[in-house]
Amino acid sequence: MKHSWRVIISLAIVAGLACDGVAAQTYPTKPIRFIVGPGPDILARLIGQKLTDTWGQQVVVDQRPGAGGIIAADTVAKSIPDGYTLLLTTGAYTINATLYPKLPYNLERDLAPVDLLALISFLVIVNPSLPAKSMQELVQLARAKPGTLNCAHSGPGTTAHLGCEMLKASARIDIVPVSYKGTNPAIVDVISGQAQLMFAVMQGGLPQVQAGKLRAVAVTGAKRSAALPDVPTITESGFAGADFISWNGVHVRAGSPKAIVAKLNDALNRTIKLSDIQERMGGLGLEPAGGTPEAFGAFVKEDIARWAKVIKSANVRVE
């Protein structure tokens, strides 16, 4: 009897895998919904148009920006697990995993990684009138004038805010994180001198640096920016503890057929290797990434652990 049940179960598994394979061969047979929360909708539109061209099925970008990505992620977590509802994930989602202990979904349990699309560096920017032309000089100034330098950021618990906290801890300096309602108002106040420094996402800070309105003293990430080759990384500057990146990727509802996830992964990897897509991504401050779903899943797990450590150490809370 036990042997018979084992045979039945094995046959059921084989039949299920066969169905998944057939589904993947014909996928997609209807429009795909690409949900965007706090991520750049322009990236979703660029990728979505290429997938539409490739597959002949419309990829519809659906913006759900509320609640810092919680609404968008919960929508996908409660969707049908068939690969027809995609989520543009960002570093905000791995931060939220710790920042909000009562989320209506679990990032690792309810969503399945598909592909890491891009890595995003941040610039450490200062007002040009500040007597600090390097990261070392900025830290020296902060030590000489504790509690007087304001580190602007785009809101409590954002990547820019946690960058301020990481710099405080790693450089052992007393700077004051100051919250703004978004990146642009924060940048405006650094330009005006109301705040002295900021961790600005590349696409937000770079135009102001190039226009001479702000000075970049360091860039986060593993390598220098091609747009600012003379600006050292924050690690090169001696403050590896303040180094971080953000990212964009794609998740689907957990339980989606693995064959469809694999087909999506292959299509996305091919798309971000196209020269015109790479050019557009570069203009947005995005570094094309790619890889396997498994590697992306491991990346997300590590990112959750990294931000959890920062959030708990700095006792960061949101209302």
Would you write up a description of this structure?
With 319 residues, this protein is α/β, with parallel strands linked by helices. The chain folds into 2 domains: 29-120 and 247-314, 3-Layer(aba) Sandwich (D-Maltodextrin-Binding Protein, domain 2), CATH 3.40.190.150; 122-242, D-Maltodextrin-Binding Protein, domain 2, CATH 3.40.190.10. Helix content is 46%, strand content 19%. It is built from 12 helices and 11 strands. The protein has helices at 2-26, 41-55, 70-77, 91-99, 107-110, 135-144, 159-171, 183-192, 202-210, 258-271, 275-283, 293-314; strands spanning 32-36, 59-63, 85-90, 111-120, 122-126, 150-153, 176-179, 197-201, 215-219, 246-253, 286-288. A 6-stranded mixed β-sheet has the order 2-1-3-10-4-11, with helices on both faces. A 5-stranded mixed β-sheet has the order 7-6-8-5-9. Helix 1 runs parallel beside helix 10, helix 4 crosses helix 12 and helix 7 packs across helix 12 (293-314). The radius of gyration is 22 Å and the shape is elongated. The mean pLDDT is 93.
What are its keywords?
D-Maltodextrin-Binding Protein, domain 2, six-stranded mixed β-sheet, 2 domains, five-stranded mixed β-sheet, 12 helices
